[in-house]
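Work package 3, deliverable 3.1, input record:
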Amino acid sequence: MRPANRQFDEIEQCLKQARLAPPSDELKARVLGSARETWASAPADIPWRIPLRHLAISAAAAVVIVSSANYFSTAAVAPWQASRPVALRMEAAHSEDMPEVPYSPFVRHLIATSGAPAHDASVLLDYFQSVRKTLDGAEQDDAADGSGPSGQESRLLPAGAKIDSYV
Amino acid sequence: MDKRAAEELIRAALRRDDPAACELLWDRYAGELLARLQAVLCSRHDAEDVLQTIFVRIVRKRRYLAAARCLDAYIHQIARNEATSFLRRHRRERFLESDAPPWLIPAEPADTGREAAEALQAALTRLPSRQREIVVLKTYQDKTFREIAQMLDLSLNTVASRYRYGMEKLRALLKDVGL
């Protein structure tokens, strides 16, 4: 026998001068009483219900998180969207224009319901032309009053500049 | 009744949803659970309270228990969780208790035995909980390293090394008190 093992045996013998108190009858009555009471009152957890319950809780949590994220992002972007020029907004793209999109019915539904604004060159061009008309009108009024710049040059756009070239 | 036969009886009672399973569980596990809890908590009262909580938890989880691959591991896992949770909840007031009844009692009913039991309890209390648990199970419950490893969900080497460290510390502590 190794010396260490012999020493451990001696310590064990020393430890055996004492012992652990066994469970008393009083303790047995108390513990079994409460266990039986629980047995009678609480239905057993049925194993297959637990994952379903976890799944339902996770789904509810996901819905809450996604809804709050949508709500707060919309609220955060709302002031910025309200101040954008009308010309930068356009109708949602026609779903028929995108026949190659996979899962098209679902994606079309999303596009139709989302109403996400997008840039469109023709809308931008219309907007610039309307601005230019307004400015030209203002310049003509100034020229009639004699307070505008000499000649018919625009203060904003060089003469002869084509709006199309900016688009 | 051997261990495997006792487990089968418990499983059968649990499958029938028969409350008699409580008694069978008590006969099979109460002794070793109480020993383990006393070793971890160093208090007889606390160990008894936690044992009651463990049995209530076992009853609530009885369907799982019936389907558990290893009954021992499942029950000892519950015991470990409850003991840890108890220690976390009562960390502060536990240090204030000084008049608690001893959890180690004399093997022989004599005055010298009582003194030795007090000294041994004091020495064991000074061991780290993980080492104390293994020393107590090995010494007072006559468990083998393999059984302890299964109970505590540890490797055999970990159990053996914790036992060795525990015994070495205990040797120094007992030498100090003249035992």
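Chain B touches chain A through 50 residues (CB under 8 Å).
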